[in-house]
Amino acid sequence: MAKSEWSFKSAVELSAALTTKKVSAVELTRDAIDRIERHDGKINAVCVRDFDRALVAAREADAGLARGERKPLLGLPLTIKESFNIAGLPTTWGFVPQKDFKPVEDALAVLRIKQAGGVILGKTNVPIGLGDWQSYNDIYGTTNNPYDLGRTPGGSSGGSSAALAAGYCALATGSDIGGSLRVPAFHCGIFAHKPTINLCAARGETPPPFPAIPREGDLAVIGPMARTAADLSLLLDVMAGPDPLDAGLAYKLDLPAARHQSLRDFRVLVIESHPLLPTDRDVRGAIDKLATDLTKAGVTVARESTLLPDFAETSRLYMRMLLSFLGAFFPPDELADAQAGASQLSPEDRSLGAERLRGITASHRAWVFDAGARAVLRAQWRALFKTFDAVICPIMPTPAFPHDHSPEQRLRRIDIDGTDYPYSDQLAWPGIATLPGLPATAVPLGLSKDGLPVGVQIVGPFLEDRTPLKLAELIEREFGGFTPPPLFDD
């Protein structure tokens, strides 16, 4: 069967076509199902299929459209990251002992998507415990990058990014604590938005078998993924808002408008280097070209500023706070190994690996002092955003890397222009926005000479999510956006 004319349309375009009756929700859903059945044997993005219920929802959407109903996602097929609870479907987070766990209630974000008329095709693959920039586990296997099946699609929302890049759907959900929205977007050439911390209530995006109760995110967020920047806003507006069970945990959706509507009015700081982790020539080249293009388009572009927080200290602090959280869930043997390693550290060892060990073994007193340092960091960002509207910087140091399933991540390496660096040090770039809780939009910038996607993140001011989202739209409009993978552009 030939590619449907709708496969790579945006959600905004599909919604307009549904409203004008150029296509039905059932037709879109059947097209999506056909595409998954034809292609997903190679990609393995959709690990849990829910096609029967999707067709029921599509018929209900068509009936609603016929009655003149208008909802933000009415009739639009989409996918949900496996880590989000969907009633009646397994939520495993890749943990084999939880392969039969099926929640009885939807995650709050899933409920909101259903109420907005979304048609859920199924769930997308993740790494074990959402703890990798690759997406594989012993329950569902390995998800491959649609641009090169031998490479990672990113993680932990790698199934979602691969599904979007392959044209299965126009919208998907993801989550992010170590770049898990932005990294797969970067590796698969799509858009994603890491919202301001606690903007989207995350109840039900919960590791099994823990109960789905309101929780305040210290670093972690949930957010939208799409093939266009405008579609991010469409899904964000559905997902965002406080949890009715505890309205204090999330901000209301009265976000301010974008600071500017015209590209030339933006003041942008472009950064390509990190004192502890370089970027490779493909990433640097894409950023340099974007900076040049923005300047030619009349944007005020700076390449350095004394207002920029110290990235080295930011990354060290982020490593400690992130691993202080993640380490709480380590099994006893891993925790004992970390404690043994931390006890041997020299005070002069300021490597990111050393900071991760310190975080795993940190006392609550140490965490309190680190939280204070983070408050200072947030004040530095507030001051910077009085002069600039956005900071554009890398998401990862290289395009998608080959699959590496060696069991100990601490022993893996990443090749950056011929030099090896610790695999986990790649956290440095996503952490720039994660630690202070700032919104960050991942934007594709085309393909490298090897045909792999490259892109950047646009970091915006706290609770001003619409500013990086708008800048992403303008960059997409002027300089191109998503490029379909040649392997699956059929």
TrEMBL record:
It is an enzyme of class 3 (hydrolase). One of its GO terms (cellular component) is endomembrane system. It comes from the Bacteria. Its EC number is 3.5.1.4. Keywords: Hydrolase. Residues 27-467 form the Amidase domain. PROSITE patterns: AMIDASES. This is Amidase. It comes from Bradyrhizobium niftali. The lineage of its organism: Bacteria, Pseudomonadati, Pseudomonadota, Alphaproteobacteria, Hyphomicrobiales.
